[in-house]
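cron nightly-structures :: item 1 of 1
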Amino acid sequence: MFVPMVNPVDRSSPLPLWCQVSDDLRRRLDAGDFAEHFPGDGELMEAYGVSRHTAREAVRRLADAGLVVRERGRGTRVTSPGIEQPLGTLYSLYRSIEAQGYEQHSVVRALDERTNAEAAGVLGLDEDEALVYLERLRQADGRALALDRSWLPASLARPILDCDFSRTALYGELAERTGVQPCSGWERIHPELPTAEQRSLLGIGAKQPVFAIERVTYGPDRQHPIEWRHSIVRGDTFAFVARWDSRDQGAQAVMEAEVLA
């Protein structure tokens, strides 16, 4: 049975009881507690000396924050730790997944040389200029997370055509084989409804939205694009978080994407 080390409920406090219970449970979650079992309503009532309504409201707030999931007939369970993917800075989804203890794997759906007028235009090339196209289904611990499509100038990226991208990062291979490293870029994120093929690949249902992420990456000269990427990310696995600090008035918000398993 769950028993808090010190009952944190202070009935003289102006904070509602549900808030005090929820704050204590959040601290326990941050400390890694409840890995095997999250206390039920009865346990919380007894441990904190509160009503069932208060216990349920405290847990509801945790559920709203994405920390736990309440399932009818099965109780409450803790959500798996998330994968943080920083935005607003150069990042690699491969490294983000690996760094947080998940096994990264990509199903390479295409890696070849072709032409595409729209991609060439974004990259500042003639519409008939050859491009390297890489399409990957990104997975963490065997679970589909995102579908990536990348276009790069073939004059630069031909050396990566024989890479095995099932277990390696595009930017790492690009730097090693061509000596060119991405140095700047921009991203645009918006929600959209996936196609039937995208739903099938990502394992999601009809009318379930996804995040569409468009990225343009620049090389050392910061003027000529070296990659145009479109990513379709499961909307139920990512949450975007903005962080800021009032002490740094001139800094832009740092965006992060958090994968919710």
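cron nightly-structures :: done
The chain has eight helices and eleven strands.
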